[in-house]
Amino acid sequence: MNDSTLHPARRLADLETPALVLDQDRMQQNIARMRTSLARFNVAFRPHVKTSKSIQVARSTLGQVSGPITVSTLKEAEYFAANGFTDILYAVGIVPGKFDHVIRLRRQGVRLTLILDSLEMAQALCDKGRQENMCFDVMIEIDSDGHRSGVVPDSPELLEIGRCLATGGQHLAGVITHAGNSYNCRSIPAIRQMAQQERDAAVGCAERLRAAGIVCPAVSIGSTPTAMFADNLDGVSEVRAGVFVFGDLVMAGLGVCRQQDIALSVLTTVIGHQKEKGWIITDAGWMAMSRDRGTSRQPQDQGYGLVCDLGGELLPDLLMVDANQEHGVIAHRSGDPAQTPDLPIGAMLRILPNHACATGAQHARYHVVNRESSDILEVWERFRGW
């Protein structure tokens, strides 16, 4: 979006809009809450950095300069490795076209763990390992909820993949799953049940492999909802989660966080009105917010985002109801034009996003503030692309 580094601002009110704002206090509160939740269990934490794509946020999440992380692109792996992160899980199924990139990273000293879910890909990886005289660290992806990819837990292919890797000179590091269907739950008890289902599927697969004489050291699970509300992580080695660090309206709709916990927002300016329609027009459209409409599947649809004042306080029943590429439309939830406040042209607002990962991806940097101030403390760069 706009390059605010050309005109450094000291306060949010001095920024050209749209711009991405990160409330550091809320972020630290969210991190502390996840750490407290996981402290009940004997598990390692491997945060997913795809949400933030930021060195500073990753270090804040870990509470240290480096540590184990999860990435969703090899570019993320490369970027974080260049900044001292060497224990990296690439949590998207590997394909042959990425083998050489993986090998380059490993030869640079990165312990990069891969995932796969087919015998075909296990065989291809074994072939590549023999050609390059390399032993890859590999986890088998498990489908614990029918949400996405992965081996069905009772499938014969699980053992076939395990044997292929073991006899093919590769290191089977464990099994991995992601309970993405937790995003479709409608209550905290349903999330707890999903967390148990996630745990049972992954641990059960590890036990099947071990019973067949196939070494399976680790069990990796995780989504923000299940990580927050799991009651039982027996047999689990590590937990992964990402969006918790900022929170968003989808998470708030699930009860995973509150709207007032959301740390990320988009700063925008009122540029006009359609008073007869009850519309306030802003300069933040879907290019600033993303097209993600995740709350449309929840009991309360939040449009493209909820509206806050410049200080980050929610304005009751005001939401971004529509978006063009560079124009946002704000209106009262009721649709009654008389209920829309008369905000002057030039007024600055902050919009809370439906999906923090998608909104963050539209921007090149975070303007970091504290909860009680609109002073810009720091500007943190983030990166984009694949």
UniProtKB/TrEMBL annotation:
Enzyme Commission number(s) of this protein: 4.1.1.17
Keyword DNA repair in record: no
Keywords, ordered alphabetically: Lyase
Sample GO molecular function, one term: ornithine decarboxylase activity
SUPFAM superfamilies reported for this sequence: PLP-binding barrel (SSF51419)
UniProt GO BP: D-serine catabolic process
UniProt domain D-serine dehydratase-like: residue ranges: 263-370
InterPro entries named in the record: Ala_racemase_N (IPR001608), D-amino_acid_metab_enzyme (IPR051466), D-ser_dehydrat-like_dom (IPR026956), D-ser_dehydrat-like_sf (IPR042208), PLP-binding_barrel (IPR029066)
Transmembrane segments: none
Recorded family membership: Belongs to the DSD1 family.
Protein's name in the database: Metal-activated pyridoxal enzyme
